[in-house]
Amino acid sequence: METNITDNGSFSRSIHLVPVPWDWILILKLILAIVGIIGNSAVIHIFQRTNKSKHNATNTFIAALACADLITSICHIPHPKLSQVDQNILGRFYCKFVDSANIMWVSIVASVFTLTTLSVERYLAVAHPTGYKRLFTKKRTVGIIIGLWLTSFAINALLSYYVTFVRDGKCAIVFSSHGYQIFIGISAFLIKYFIPVILMIIVNIATIRILKHQAKTFSNSLNNTKNSAHRQILKILLIVVITFIICWSPDQFCYFAFNVGILPVEYLFSPLYTVFGLMAFANSCANPCIYAFKNKHFRNAFLPDQKVSPSGSKSQSASGQQNDIGTRQGVKSVSRNI
Length: 338
Fold this sequence. Notes:
The protein is mainly alpha-helical. The chain has helices at residues 24-49, 57-75, 89-99, 102-127, 129-135, 138-160, 178-217, 221-259, 271-282, 286-294, 296-300, and strands spanning 2-7, 11-18, 81-82, 164-167, 170-173. A hairpin with a 3-residue loop joins β1 (2-7) and β2 (11-18). Mean pLDDT is 80; it is low at 1-12 and 313-338.
């Protein structure tokens, strides 16, 4: 594909785009992207249909996760690339933000941080209900989500900006030294994957213990109703978290091993790397599937005159709390492509 453009209005030059080399891998990536776009758009649609008065913190975080996964799915669609990249500001911009899929990685990390925050939010709702109501107001919840996205953007910029360059007309990831590559690899692994996963595991185990203790301590119907709602939310959240860990762990551990020198550079061109990458990106379309299979109210939301939240609540329970579903997702690492 060839396109003529004018640079600074003085002359015309041609930009050559390499067509997408369709094979079974790219076809599978396209299928995952389409499923992710449809599923996450459905979650956002259900959230928008609900009464704004029922937009509590959990539902808002679920919608934020769906937005992040929707952006990831859109960016995951295979597209033509430049055959020749100029050594100028436009070329560097293309390599750092387009070819490296930096926007996609920002949304991926934002999704990871949102899932981690959702796990903490569920813990606080169970362990400290009074403080929880003061902390997770509508405005503060939106502010937290904005902060997570800004943090994700800053982390990706710091970890990837100084390693993506134009070399011989191609985009390339170049580390100034092996030590710097190890530093980037360890930092990305810890910040984007390991620490969030450990935190999610700890707070979810703590939430389970508190719910079990409350079930033994309190026997009245009001507390039983509240605990039942919390258990349903936690059950779906655990499925989402476990799915995320299964999808992303192989990719993250192997890419970490590559950055610290355990795996050779040939790993990046191996079928194993491709399979692990596909597993990781499949996580972007996993949440809506989990909601559909585990929550009948999510399925009923597409029937006429059904008003439900993305958490699955048709109405408030006796305790005045909505029956939310917990949510997901994913992480990722330094700018790279499958």
